[in-house]
Amino acid sequence: MAWYRDNCRQLPWRSDISVYRVWVSEVMLQQTQVKTVIPYYIRFMETWPDLKDLAATGLETVLKTWEGLGYYARARNLHKAAGIVVRDMGGIIPDDYKGFKNLPGVGDYIASAVLSITGSKPHAVVDGNVKRVLARLLCVDAPVNHSAAHKAYKAIAEKLLYEKDPGTYNQAVMELGALVCTPKRPDCGPCPLAGECCAYEKQVTDIFPRRIKKKKVPTVHIAAGIVKKKGKVLITRRKLDGLLGGLWEFPGGKVEPKESSEQACIRELREETGIEAGNLQFLTRVFHAYTHFKIEMDVFFCDYISGRVLLNGPIDHKWVSVDQLHQFPFPRANLKFMELIRG
DNA sequence: AACGCGGGGTT
DNA sequence: AACCCAGCGTT
After folding, report:
1. Please, one GO biological process term (predicted)?
2. Which residue has its C-alpha nearest to nucleotide B6's C1'?
Protein backbone atom coordinates (compact mmCIF):
# COMPACT_ATOMS: atom_id res chain seq x y z
CA MET A 1 0.00 0.00 0.00
CA ALA A 2 2.84 2.40 0.84
CA TRP A 3 4.60 1.41 -2.36
CA TYR A 4 1.46 2.22 -4.34
CA ARG A 5 1.06 5.58 -2.65
CA ASP A 6 4.58 6.55 -3.65
CA ASN A 7 4.72 4.98 -7.11
CA CYS A 8 1.29 4.97 -8.71
CA ARG A 9 0.86 6.64 -12.08
CA GLN A 10 -1.31 9.69 -12.51
CA LEU A 11 -3.97 8.48 -14.92
CA PRO A 12 -7.07 10.30 -16.20
CA TRP A 13 -9.47 7.92 -14.44
CA ARG A 14 -7.69 8.39 -11.12
CA SER A 15 -8.91 11.99 -10.80
CA ASP A 16 -12.51 13.16 -10.42
CA ILE A 17 -13.39 9.64 -9.34
CA SER A 18 -16.97 8.59 -9.94
CA VAL A 19 -18.65 5.26 -10.61
CA TYR A 20 -19.25 6.26 -14.23
CA ARG A 21 -15.68 7.40 -14.89
CA VAL A 22 -14.10 4.34 -13.30
CA TRP A 23 -16.58 2.03 -15.03
CA VAL A 24 -15.75 3.43 -18.48
CA SER A 25 -12.03 3.14 -17.75
CA GLU A 26 -12.32 -0.50 -16.70
CA VAL A 27 -14.27 -1.36 -19.85
CA MET A 28 -11.64 0.25 -22.05
CA LEU A 29 -8.81 -1.36 -20.12
CA GLN A 30 -10.02 -4.91 -20.78
CA GLN A 31 -7.21 -6.62 -22.65
CA THR A 32 -5.96 -3.21 -23.67
CA GLN A 33 -2.89 -1.40 -22.44
CA VAL A 34 -2.96 1.83 -20.49
CA LYS A 35 -1.03 3.80 -23.10
CA THR A 36 -3.51 2.80 -25.81
CA VAL A 37 -6.54 3.64 -23.68
CA ILE A 38 -5.58 7.13 -22.49
CA PRO A 39 -6.44 9.14 -25.67
CA TYR A 40 -9.65 7.17 -26.19
CA TYR A 41 -10.68 7.72 -22.59
CA ILE A 42 -10.07 11.47 -22.71
CA ARG A 43 -12.04 11.83 -25.94
CA PHE A 44 -14.86 9.67 -24.57
CA MET A 45 -15.19 11.73 -21.39
CA GLU A 46 -15.13 15.01 -23.29
CA THR A 47 -17.92 13.73 -25.50
CA TRP A 48 -20.04 12.12 -22.79
CA PRO A 49 -19.14 13.56 -19.36
CA ASP A 50 -22.08 11.83 -17.71
CA LEU A 51 -23.91 8.55 -18.04
CA LYS A 52 -27.05 10.30 -19.24
CA ASP A 53 -25.10 11.90 -22.09
CA LEU A 54 -23.96 8.47 -23.21
CA ALA A 55 -27.46 7.01 -22.95
CA ALA A 56 -28.82 9.85 -25.09
CA THR A 57 -26.54 9.21 -28.05
CA GLY A 58 -26.70 6.68 -30.86
CA LEU A 59 -24.70 3.48 -31.03
CA GLU A 60 -22.98 4.50 -34.27
CA THR A 61 -21.53 7.58 -32.63
CA VAL A 62 -20.19 5.48 -29.77
CA LEU A 63 -18.65 3.00 -32.22
CA LYS A 64 -17.02 5.86 -34.09
CA THR A 65 -15.34 7.01 -30.88
CA TRP A 66 -14.33 3.39 -30.23
CA GLU A 67 -12.95 2.96 -33.78
CA GLY A 68 -9.52 1.33 -33.65
CA LEU A 69 -9.75 0.28 -29.99
CA GLY A 70 -11.03 -3.22 -30.78
CA TYR A 71 -13.41 -5.57 -28.96
CA TYR A 72 -16.37 -3.57 -30.17
CA ALA A 73 -18.85 -5.56 -28.09
CA ARG A 74 -17.50 -3.52 -25.17
CA ALA A 75 -18.87 -0.37 -26.74
CA ARG A 76 -22.18 -1.97 -27.62
CA ASN A 77 -22.62 -3.37 -24.10
CA LEU A 78 -21.59 -0.14 -22.38
CA HIS A 79 -24.04 1.83 -24.49
CA LYS A 80 -26.80 -0.68 -23.78
CA ALA A 81 -26.03 -0.64 -20.05
CA ALA A 82 -26.17 3.17 -19.99
CA GLY A 83 -29.64 3.00 -21.52
CA ILE A 84 -30.79 0.45 -18.94
CA VAL A 85 -29.51 2.50 -16.00
CA VAL A 86 -30.98 5.79 -17.24
CA ARG A 87 -34.34 4.44 -18.42
CA ASP A 88 -35.01 1.55 -16.01
CA MET A 89 -33.08 2.54 -12.88
CA GLY A 90 -33.73 6.24 -12.69
CA GLY A 91 -30.12 6.99 -13.57
CA ILE A 92 -28.83 5.32 -10.42
CA ILE A 93 -26.00 2.84 -11.06
CA PRO A 94 -26.44 -0.19 -8.77
CA ASP A 95 -23.93 -0.10 -5.91
CA ASP A 96 -24.20 -3.77 -5.01
CA TYR A 97 -22.18 -6.51 -6.68
CA LYS A 98 -25.06 -8.58 -8.02
CA GLY A 99 -26.99 -5.61 -9.33
CA PHE A 100 -24.01 -4.03 -11.05
CA LYS A 101 -22.64 -7.28 -12.48
CA ASN A 102 -26.04 -7.95 -14.01
CA LEU A 103 -25.55 -5.06 -16.46
CA PRO A 104 -24.35 -6.02 -19.95
CA GLY A 105 -20.58 -6.01 -20.27
CA VAL A 106 -20.02 -6.12 -16.51
CA GLY A 107 -18.38 -9.31 -15.28
CA ASP A 108 -16.64 -10.30 -12.08
CA TYR A 109 -13.60 -8.17 -12.76
CA ILE A 110 -15.37 -4.91 -13.60
CA ALA A 111 -17.91 -5.30 -10.81
CA SER A 112 -15.16 -5.95 -8.26
CA ALA A 113 -12.94 -3.16 -9.55
CA VAL A 114 -15.57 -0.44 -9.79
CA LEU A 115 -17.27 -1.23 -6.48
CA SER A 116 -14.01 -1.56 -4.54
CA ILE A 117 -12.46 1.58 -5.98
CA THR A 118 -15.51 3.82 -5.82
CA GLY A 119 -17.33 2.30 -2.84
CA SER A 120 -14.75 0.42 -0.78
CA LYS A 121 -16.75 -2.77 -1.27
CA PRO A 122 -14.75 -5.87 -0.23
CA HIS A 123 -14.23 -7.57 -3.60
CA ALA A 124 -10.83 -8.67 -4.89
CA VAL A 125 -10.01 -8.20 -8.56
CA VAL A 126 -8.33 -10.88 -10.64
CA ASP A 127 -6.83 -9.75 -13.92
CA GLY A 128 -3.69 -10.68 -15.79
CA ASN A 129 -1.52 -8.56 -13.52
CA VAL A 130 -2.97 -10.00 -10.33
CA LYS A 131 -2.57 -13.58 -11.52
CA ARG A 132 1.06 -12.98 -12.40
CA VAL A 133 1.85 -11.36 -9.04
CA LEU A 134 0.09 -14.10 -7.08
CA ALA A 135 1.62 -16.89 -9.17
CA ARG A 136 5.12 -15.62 -8.38
CA LEU A 137 4.44 -14.62 -4.80
CA LEU A 138 3.11 -18.08 -3.88
CA CYS A 139 4.56 -20.26 -6.68
CA VAL A 140 1.08 -21.15 -7.87
CA ASP A 141 1.18 -23.93 -10.45
CA ALA A 142 -2.24 -23.32 -12.01
CA PRO A 143 -1.76 -21.95 -15.56
CA VAL A 144 -2.86 -18.33 -15.71
CA ASN A 145 -4.32 -18.61 -19.21
CA HIS A 146 -6.53 -21.57 -18.41
CA SER A 147 -10.14 -20.79 -17.54
CA ALA A 148 -10.26 -23.56 -14.93
CA ALA A 149 -7.55 -21.79 -12.93
CA HIS A 150 -9.46 -18.57 -12.48
CA LYS A 151 -11.33 -19.77 -9.41
CA ALA A 152 -8.08 -20.68 -7.66
CA TYR A 153 -6.63 -17.20 -8.21
CA LYS A 154 -9.89 -15.55 -7.20
CA ALA A 155 -9.88 -17.49 -3.93
CA ILE A 156 -6.29 -16.47 -3.17
CA ALA A 157 -7.01 -12.85 -4.00
CA GLU A 158 -10.07 -12.80 -1.74
CA LYS A 159 -8.04 -14.24 1.12
CA LEU A 160 -5.29 -11.62 0.77
CA LEU A 161 -7.69 -8.68 0.33
CA TYR A 162 -7.06 -5.76 2.67
CA GLU A 163 -10.62 -5.08 3.72
CA LYS A 164 -10.00 -1.67 5.24
CA ASP A 165 -9.21 -0.26 1.81
CA PRO A 166 -10.05 -2.78 -0.90
CA GLY A 167 -9.89 -0.24 -3.71
CA THR A 168 -6.36 0.86 -3.01
CA TYR A 169 -5.31 -2.71 -2.34
CA ASN A 170 -6.67 -3.92 -5.68
CA GLN A 171 -5.06 -1.09 -7.59
CA ALA A 172 -1.78 -1.61 -5.75
CA VAL A 173 -1.53 -5.26 -6.81
CA MET A 174 -2.37 -4.40 -10.41
CA GLU A 175 0.03 -1.48 -10.47
CA LEU A 176 2.77 -3.69 -9.05
CA GLY A 177 2.13 -6.17 -11.85
CA ALA A 178 2.20 -3.42 -14.47
CA LEU A 179 5.33 -1.62 -13.24
CA VAL A 180 7.47 -4.09 -11.27
CA CYS A 181 6.28 -7.70 -11.55
CA THR A 182 6.28 -7.54 -15.35
CA PRO A 183 5.84 -10.57 -17.65
CA LYS A 184 9.44 -10.51 -18.85
CA ARG A 185 12.37 -9.66 -16.57
CA PRO A 186 10.56 -8.45 -13.44
CA ASP A 187 12.30 -5.67 -11.53
CA CYS A 188 12.60 -7.49 -8.20
CA GLY A 189 15.09 -5.06 -6.67
CA PRO A 190 12.60 -2.38 -5.64
CA CYS A 191 9.69 -4.81 -5.21
CA PRO A 192 8.06 -4.38 -1.79
CA LEU A 193 7.15 -8.09 -1.80
CA ALA A 194 10.62 -9.45 -2.65
CA GLY A 195 11.21 -10.54 0.94
CA GLU A 196 8.20 -12.84 0.92
CA CYS A 197 8.12 -13.86 -2.74
CA CYS A 198 8.39 -17.61 -3.38
CA ALA A 199 9.55 -17.27 -6.98
CA TYR A 200 12.15 -14.66 -6.06
CA GLU A 201 13.53 -16.71 -3.20
CA LYS A 202 13.93 -19.74 -5.48
CA GLN A 203 15.13 -17.61 -8.41
CA VAL A 204 12.38 -18.96 -10.67
CA THR A 205 10.53 -15.79 -11.59
CA ASP A 206 11.08 -16.72 -15.24
CA ILE A 207 9.00 -19.91 -15.03
CA PHE A 208 6.10 -18.30 -13.14
CA PRO A 209 3.39 -17.71 -14.00
CA ARG A 210 2.86 -21.01 -15.76
CA ARG A 211 0.80 -20.98 -18.92
CA ILE A 212 -0.50 -23.46 -21.44
CA LYS A 213 0.68 -23.22 -25.02
CA LYS A 214 -1.53 -21.54 -27.56
CA LYS A 215 -2.08 -22.83 -31.07
CA LYS A 216 -0.64 -20.76 -33.83
CA VAL A 217 -2.97 -18.69 -35.89
CA PRO A 218 -3.92 -19.41 -39.51
CA THR A 219 -3.74 -16.86 -42.30
CA VAL A 220 -6.86 -16.09 -44.31
CA HIS A 221 -6.86 -14.48 -47.75
CA ILE A 222 -9.48 -11.80 -48.26
CA ALA A 223 -10.53 -9.72 -51.24
CA ALA A 224 -12.40 -6.44 -50.90
CA GLY A 225 -13.83 -4.08 -53.51
CA ILE A 226 -14.22 -0.32 -53.55
CA VAL A 227 -17.09 -0.12 -56.00
CA LYS A 228 -17.39 3.25 -57.74
CA LYS A 229 -20.66 4.58 -59.15
CA LYS A 230 -21.33 8.21 -60.10
CA GLY A 231 -18.54 9.53 -57.89
CA LYS A 232 -19.61 7.53 -54.86
CA VAL A 233 -18.40 4.29 -53.32
CA LEU A 234 -20.31 1.42 -51.73
CA ILE A 235 -19.92 0.59 -48.05
CA THR A 236 -21.77 -2.08 -46.09
CA ARG A 237 -22.44 -2.54 -42.40
CA ARG A 238 -21.62 -5.76 -40.58
CA LYS A 239 -24.21 -7.47 -38.42
CA LEU A 240 -24.30 -6.30 -34.83
CA ASP A 241 -22.91 -9.46 -33.25
CA GLY A 242 -19.69 -11.29 -33.89
CA LEU A 243 -16.44 -10.06 -35.34
CA LEU A 244 -16.31 -6.27 -35.77
CA GLY A 245 -20.05 -6.14 -35.10
CA GLY A 246 -21.81 -2.97 -36.23
CA LEU A 247 -18.83 -1.54 -38.07
CA TRP A 248 -18.83 -0.45 -41.71
CA GLU A 249 -16.48 -1.89 -44.33
CA PHE A 250 -15.86 -2.31 -48.03
CA PRO A 251 -17.66 -5.48 -49.09
CA GLY A 252 -15.64 -8.58 -49.86
CA GLY A 253 -14.76 -11.93 -48.37
CA LYS A 254 -12.61 -15.03 -48.39
CA VAL A 255 -10.59 -16.04 -51.43
CA GLU A 256 -11.44 -19.70 -52.04
CA PRO A 257 -8.78 -22.26 -53.03
CA LYS A 258 -7.90 -22.12 -56.75
CA GLU A 259 -9.56 -18.73 -57.02
CA SER A 260 -7.83 -15.45 -57.80
CA SER A 261 -8.34 -12.39 -55.62
CA GLU A 262 -10.07 -10.70 -58.55
CA GLN A 263 -12.50 -13.59 -58.99
CA ALA A 264 -13.18 -13.68 -55.27
CA CYS A 265 -13.82 -9.94 -55.18
CA ILE A 266 -16.39 -10.11 -57.99
CA ARG A 267 -18.02 -13.21 -56.52
CA GLU A 268 -18.23 -11.81 -52.99
CA LEU A 269 -19.69 -8.54 -54.21
CA ARG A 270 -22.33 -10.51 -56.09
CA GLU A 271 -23.10 -12.76 -53.11
CA GLU A 272 -23.10 -10.08 -50.41
CA THR A 273 -24.60 -7.12 -52.23
CA GLY A 274 -26.21 -8.54 -55.36
CA ILE A 275 -24.42 -6.21 -57.75
CA GLU A 276 -22.12 -6.94 -60.67
CA ALA A 277 -18.76 -5.18 -60.68
CA GLY A 278 -15.95 -5.11 -63.24
CA ASN A 279 -12.82 -3.33 -64.46
CA LEU A 280 -10.88 -4.20 -61.34
CA GLN A 281 -7.78 -2.20 -60.50
CA PHE A 282 -5.50 -3.46 -57.74
CA LEU A 283 -5.02 -0.85 -55.03
CA THR A 284 -2.99 -2.49 -52.27
CA ARG A 285 -2.46 -5.54 -50.09
CA VAL A 286 -3.07 -5.15 -46.36
CA PHE A 287 -1.70 -7.42 -43.65
CA HIS A 288 -3.52 -7.47 -40.35
CA ALA A 289 -3.38 -9.70 -37.29
CA TYR A 290 -6.32 -10.60 -35.07
CA THR A 291 -6.05 -12.78 -31.98
CA HIS A 292 -6.98 -16.05 -33.63
CA PHE A 293 -6.05 -15.52 -37.27
CA LYS A 294 -4.26 -13.23 -39.66
CA ILE A 295 -5.56 -11.78 -42.87
CA GLU A 296 -3.98 -10.80 -46.15
CA MET A 297 -6.45 -8.54 -47.90
CA ASP A 298 -6.22 -7.55 -51.56
CA VAL A 299 -8.12 -4.34 -52.20
CA PHE A 300 -9.46 -3.40 -55.62
CA PHE A 301 -11.07 -0.37 -57.15
CA CYS A 302 -13.85 -1.50 -59.44
CA ASP A 303 -16.71 -0.09 -61.46
CA TYR A 304 -20.35 -0.72 -60.85
CA ILE A 305 -21.77 -2.61 -63.84
CA SER A 306 -25.34 -3.62 -63.08
CA GLY A 307 -27.83 -4.81 -60.52
CA ARG A 308 -29.64 -3.36 -57.56
CA VAL A 309 -28.24 -3.75 -54.05
CA LEU A 310 -29.81 -6.78 -52.36
CA LEU A 311 -27.98 -7.50 -49.13
CA ASN A 312 -27.07 -11.02 -48.07
CA GLY A 313 -25.08 -10.80 -44.83
CA PRO A 314 -24.61 -7.07 -44.24
CA ILE A 315 -27.45 -5.27 -42.44
CA ASP A 316 -27.15 -1.94 -44.27
CA HIS A 317 -25.40 -0.24 -47.16
CA LYS A 318 -24.69 3.27 -48.36
CA TRP A 319 -23.29 4.95 -51.44
CA VAL A 320 -21.09 7.71 -50.06
CA SER A 321 -18.57 10.19 -51.38
CA VAL A 322 -14.96 9.68 -50.39
CA ASP A 323 -15.22 12.81 -48.24
CA GLN A 324 -17.91 11.16 -46.10
CA LEU A 325 -15.99 8.00 -45.29
CA HIS A 326 -14.51 9.44 -42.12
CA GLN A 327 -17.99 9.70 -40.60
CA PHE A 328 -18.36 5.94 -40.31
CA PRO A 329 -16.63 3.52 -37.94
CA PHE A 330 -14.34 1.12 -39.84
CA PRO A 331 -12.12 -1.74 -38.68
CA ARG A 332 -8.42 -1.00 -38.43
CA ALA A 333 -7.71 -3.22 -41.46
CA ASN A 334 -9.85 -0.86 -43.59
CA LEU A 335 -8.29 2.26 -42.10
CA LYS A 336 -4.92 1.01 -43.30
CA PHE A 337 -5.79 1.78 -46.93
CA MET A 338 -8.25 4.64 -46.40
CA GLU A 339 -5.57 7.19 -47.19
CA LEU A 340 -4.96 5.63 -50.60
CA ILE A 341 -8.55 5.89 -51.79
CA ARG A 342 -8.45 9.60 -52.51
CA GLY A 343 -5.50 9.14 -54.85
C1' DA B 1 -15.15 -25.30 -19.77
C1' DA B 2 -13.99 -23.81 -24.30
C1' DC B 3 -14.17 -20.44 -27.55
C1' DG B 4 -14.74 -15.93 -30.05
C1' DC B 5 -13.63 -11.37 -29.78
C1' DG B 6 -9.05 -6.31 -31.78
C1' DG B 7 -5.42 -3.96 -31.60
C1' DG B 8 -1.02 -2.52 -30.17
C1' DG B 9 3.23 -2.81 -27.46
C1' DT B 10 7.32 -5.53 -25.98
C1' DT B 11 10.79 -8.87 -26.31
C1' DA C 1 7.25 -14.37 -34.34
C1' DA C 2 5.62 -15.01 -29.89
C1' DC C 3 3.82 -13.17 -26.02
C1' DC C 4 1.04 -10.16 -23.37
C1' DC C 5 -2.58 -6.97 -21.92
C1' DA C 6 -7.26 -3.48 -15.61
C1' DG C 7 -12.22 -9.74 -19.43
C1' DC C 8 -16.93 -10.76 -21.04
C1' DG C 9 -20.62 -13.29 -23.37
C1' DT C 10 -22.09 -17.33 -25.63
C1' DT C 11 -22.49 -22.06 -26.17
Report:
1. mismatch repair
2. A70
Domain edges within chain A: 2-201, 219-341
Q: Angle CA(A317)–CA(A319)–CA(A325) in degrees, nearest 5?
A: 95
| Per-10-residue mean pLDDT, chain A, length 343 | 92 94 94 90 95 94 94 94 94 93 94 95 93 93 87 92 94 93 91 94 91 80 95 94 92 92 96 97 92 90 97 94 94 92 82
Q: Domain A2-201 adopts which CATH fold?
A: Endonuclease III; domain 1 (1.10.340)
> CA–C1' distance A244–B4 (Å)?
11
Domain A219-341 has CATH 2.60.40.1670: no
Residues for chain A: how many in total? Answer: 343
Rounded to 5 degrees, φ, ψ at A88 are: -105, -15
Closest alpha carbon to C1' of B11, residue: A184
Scanning every strand, the nucleotide with its C1' closest to A209's CA turns out to be C4
Instruction: Collapse the DSSP code of A84 into the 3-class scheme (helix H, G, I; strand E, B; otherwise coil) and give the result.
Output: helix
- Mark whether A201 is an active-site residue: no
Identity of residue A308: R
| Residues whose CB is less than 8 angstroms from the CB of residue A183 and which lie 6 or more positions away in sequence, other chains included | A132
Q: 3-class SS at A232?
A: strand
Cα distances from A326 to residues A104, A203, A295, A320, A334, in angstroms, run 29, 52, 23, 10, 11
Tell me, what's the pLDDT at A134? 93
For residue A241, which nucleotide's C1' is closest to its Cα?
A: B5
Footprint of strand C on the protein (CB under 7 A): A 11, 13-14, 25-26, 29-34, 71, 73, 77, 103-111, 113, 127-129, 132, 144-145, 171, 174-175, 177-178, 183-184, 211, 213-214, 216, 291
Gap between the Cα atoms of A167 and A123, Å rounded: 9
Per the CB < 8 A criterion, the answer to whether A104 and A77 are in contact is yes
C-alpha to C-alpha distances, A226 to A34, A64, A173, nearest whole angstrom: 35, 21, 49
